[in-house]
Amino acid sequence: MSERVPAEADVSGPLAGIATGALRKAIRSQAGAAKGYVRMLRQSHPDESPARIRERLDSRFLTAVTASGAAVGATAAVPGVGTVIAFGAIGAESLVFIEAAAFYTLAVAEVHGIDVKLGEHEELLVMTVMLGASGTAILANAVSTNGGASAGGSLAGRSLGLPGLKEVNRRMVSRFARKFAVKRATLAMGKLAPAGIGAAVGGWGNRRLGRTVVTAAATTFGTPPDSWPAS
């Protein structure tokens, strides 16, 4: 039974615009790269199943975002200029996290054979995964309300034929702008701590956010197929 999700209040202004713009830019820039990366992994490991390749994607995503968070936190330990540099770096690193999550989500979609051709579908899946449990609840509710629950398959697969996609995406963007900003602001305070504490907090915090993304991807895409398509 899907979680009942209340209607979202409209979120507009600079925050929503920056978050949405960064997300769409990340999707455009990472879509082709994600497909190519999965092809490269399959060529490098021809005997590995989709499940094993998916494990590799999970591991490398978590490693990347953990390292990114730790690197930003470490700049605060530089005497005199560390905190100033870190303030600017945190904003840039937040965009790096969005790009990494978009790349990861679209790579997982490729492993699962989800042919995402429309930008709105890409946005839907990436935002669902980045929002974690609240994102999967919104998507599950939308799929169920529109009769997709009887179609079988994963949430990601059933969402491809979802009517009213723009409205679902509007709710996702509203939640995404609010929730992502709160989480990043909370982590930012920890990353600015001196004497190496910022690096530890940054790495731990980013890994925790990354775990949320990986868990949401598992819920959204389900179990990987047993084998690759014959083609």
Provide an overview of this structure.
This protein is mainly alpha-helical and 231 residues long. Helix content is 74%, strand content 0%. The chain is built from eight helices and no strands. The protein has helices at residues 14-44, 50-75, 82-111, 119-131, 133-145, 155-159, 165-191, 197-221. The protein starts with 13 loop residues before the first helix and ends in a 10-residue tail after the last helix. The model is unreliable at 1-12, 76-91 and 187-200 (pLDDT under 50).
Give keywords.
single chain, 231 residues, mainly alpha, 0% strand, disordered N terminus
Strand content: under 5%
Radius of gyration: 18 Å
Give the SSE order as H and E letters: HHHHHHHH
Mean pLDDT: 74
Q: Kindly state the percentage of residues in helix.
A: over 70%
Shape: globular
H/I helix tally: 8
The major sheet is characterized as: none
Give the helix/strand class. mainly alpha
Poorly predicted regions: 1-12, 76-91, 187-200
Q: Number of DSSP strands?
A: 0
Q: Give the N-to-C terminal Cα separation.
A: 36 Å
Write a concise synopsis of the structure shown.
This protein has 231 residues and is mainly alpha-helical. It has eight helices and no strands.
